[in-house]
Amino acid sequence: MLRFLRQSATSWLIKIILGAIVVVFVFWGVGSFRSQRKDRVALVNGETITLDEYNKEYNSIIEQLNQRLGNNLNDDMIKMLNVKGQAIDRLIDKKLMLQEAAKLNLSVTNDELADTIRQIEAFQTNGNFDSQMYENVLDQNRLTLQEFELIQKKAMIVEKSRSFILSNVKVSEQEVIEWFKWENISVNVDFVVFEPGRYDDTNPTPDEMNSFFEDNKRSYKTDSMVKVRFLRFDPDAYKSMVEITDEEIQNHYENNMEKFETQKTIEARHILIKLDQSSNPETVEKKRKAALDIIKLAMEGIVFAELAKQYSECPSKNKGGYLGKFQKNDMVKPFAEKAFQMKAGEISEPVRTQYGWHIIKVERVNEETCVSFEDAKDKIRNKLVEEKAKNLAYEEAEAVYDASFEGDDLITNAEARGLNIVTTDSFTKNKGPDTTGIKNRSAFASYVFNLSLMEIGDIQDFEDGYYIIQLIEKIPEKIPELKDVEERIRIDLIKQIQDEKAGKYANELLIALKDNKSKSLNTKWDTECKKLNLTATATGFFKRDSSIPHIGSEQNISQAAFKLSNENMLPEAPVKGEKGYYVIRFRDRKEPGLNGFEEEKEKIKEKLLKQKMFKTFDAWLSSIRNKSVISIEKSFWE
Length: 638
Known about the structure:
Mean pLDDT: 86
Radius of gyration: 34 Å
Number of helices: 22
Distance between the termini: 47 Å
Shape: flat
Low-confidence stretches: 1-38
């Protein structure tokens, strides 16, 4: 099928924004394809992790965080989250997993690789693999078919090693029962809450504000900013300069005939009766007879799609066994040989493959075709115009870049060529410039923050043309004067003082309740709450992961409540919640029976299995790390 993917995919560019596929590309990185000897950031058992690989991994994490945080990511958060460390750790782990897979002699066949690629949604149209879409998606991400297939193959090898390590992980019935009981036990507590907003008589003094500011200066610092000037060389602006001859179009057509030919395809449904390759002859024959019985039902007029939904053991059963349109090389040989001998409407006898017995119904036969030169020439002309316009744009960008060295050279060269040079306002790394017309502002900003002052960067492609950028101003991060953030300081300090008061009074109540005097806890609870003008409330019974009645979803409070008992009725400290500080008191605990266990058993078993697998794999990977020789370049952390 790999030959099919390469031969059949066309090259007409379409604009596709990827989700999962982009993550896969970045996760594995493609630096090793283009720059084998780039700066090294680490060695893992003698194998290099390059700076290019690191940059891709780092940018991937930043992009994920931006999506999660709504582009509110700043330098402090990046440091706090240790994105740099996360990126290098991920790369080390991936390198180790590939090395271990090699030791286990794990491999992926071309058939396995082809089957996996066909299932990737980004390469499908209406649920079916689309060879043209395949190449377009890779073009959009600047990957060749060979590069992507190698990336995908590595990912599949690692997944095989993971499956091998986790193959013996099991969950017992007793573990499932214990989890069910643990998850369904419920408690009932009394509570009072000290809300910070009650203490509205707070008015900080100038000295208090000044002291608060001194202690929290870095929280108010501004982000570093830059200002740049740039030239953009838009290929669309060069199209009018391009002339394409009929001879060029004819040559392109003749030299790329495979892209204008459409191989014969079949649209079919099938019913699969699964069979292990090691099955004994009796089982093989039993399954074949089951297939014959289904064929008989189809011949009697029962709709094939309905039979597939009922009897097929292939995931395609949900679509009535529909396999979509496929070429001969797409399918395993016995299946393909039979299907391509059939006519539309025919139903086959049972066909044996490595997966089991198949019953095939051909829905449609699409004979081999070839797009004529007359039909193709307009598209070819447009393609050649785009390619030449892009080359012209790059050539002019290269000429300007070669003539520009420092200082005002970029302005001089732009004016001499009648080019429009754009100067941005100051912008931060996480927001990027406000200048319109820049398609990929995130990549633009990430690049310019690595330039030195007045440096003219290399020619960059940000998806909408070629850019030459010069950094003309750097504004470092700074801590503002108190007067510039005085109102913010006042608001933040008032909140802190109110919070401290609420916590203090809650703690005083808890101390009073724990006093070992003769009064019972019930009496002390009523007395102390009345003294503080607090109304105690009983929650009623609730489970660990459920919302707490009268309080809401408060995991800290829930965890504290489930630690309480008749012997230990009060928590160690007040519990911080959304509304303030809670003091809780144990009332009762209700042990669950096994009602509903059977309905929940499989779900719990699956959950526990995933947890066990995660812990097992994490322990295995940690063990491999401890046995490995890993070194990170000192300069990497500087």
